Structure formats: structure tokens, C-alpha cells
Amino acid sequence: xxxxxxxxxxxHEQMKKRCSGCKYLKKxxxxxxxxxxxxxxxxxxxxYKKGYSVQGALFEIxxxxxxxLDKYEDFPILYKKIFFKHEGRDVMAYSMxxxxxxxxxxxxxxxxxxxxxxxxxxxxxxxxxxxKG
Length: 133
What we know:
By secondary structure, the protein is an alpha+beta fold. The protein has a single domain (about 1-130), classed as Gamma-glutamyl cyclotransferase-like (Hypothetical upf0131 protein ytfp, Roll). It has four helices and five strands. It has a five-stranded mixed β-sheet. Strand 4 (about 80-85) and strand 5 form a beta hairpin. It is globular and about 35 Å long. The N and C termini lie far apart (about 30 Å).
């Protein structure tokens, strides 16, 4: 299965610990979605927004990896699964159930995401834009 990461799961070392069978494929831009941070946990989320884009990464994951991600992402309580197509294949991503107001993330969490942006060769301007709320 293909999985689209856009937050802390961009961090390669952390993702490999969480999902031992995962394989990073490439960076990917999800069109018509916007990156934000929300919930009492101040964590990353994506929401549909025409004309915006979210930089992230595609990973190949196993069924076991998906179960691990479901636990980590508190699916189906905090996050739901959304799907889109890439080259004829389904891609799964997580998006929050409740769209609460913007909440700035912790320094620790943000540093994990920043390392993930480096690991995946992403443009940090997209992250900086999301942090404006």
C-alpha cells in the first residue's frame, strides 16, 4: 500500500522505527490540500482547500505497518483515512476527524518535522506557511 506522510512521519529514522517494513519512495505534492496544526495535541493535519498544496512523501507500507500507523495516529478517534490516486494506485493518508482551530506545535514535534523535511528534500517554505496559522 502507498502512504502519504506530511508531518512527523516524514522523519525517516522515526518512520522506520514505527513501521519496520516501510520504504521511502519519493517526495510528493498533494494538490488542493493545506497543511495545518490543530487539536489539543498541536499536531499536523491536512484539509481540503482548493488552490493549496501540501508537500510530503510517499512510502510503501505493509499491512503490519498500517496497523502500527493506525495506533500511532489514534485511528479512527483522532484521524480518519482519506484516499487518492497516484499512477493508478490508491494512496492512504490521515486527516483529522474534528477540524479544530489552529494550534502552534511544540518545539520538539516541530523539530521532528523539520528533520523529516530534510530527509525527504522538501521545501521548508511550505512548513513555514502552515505555521502562520
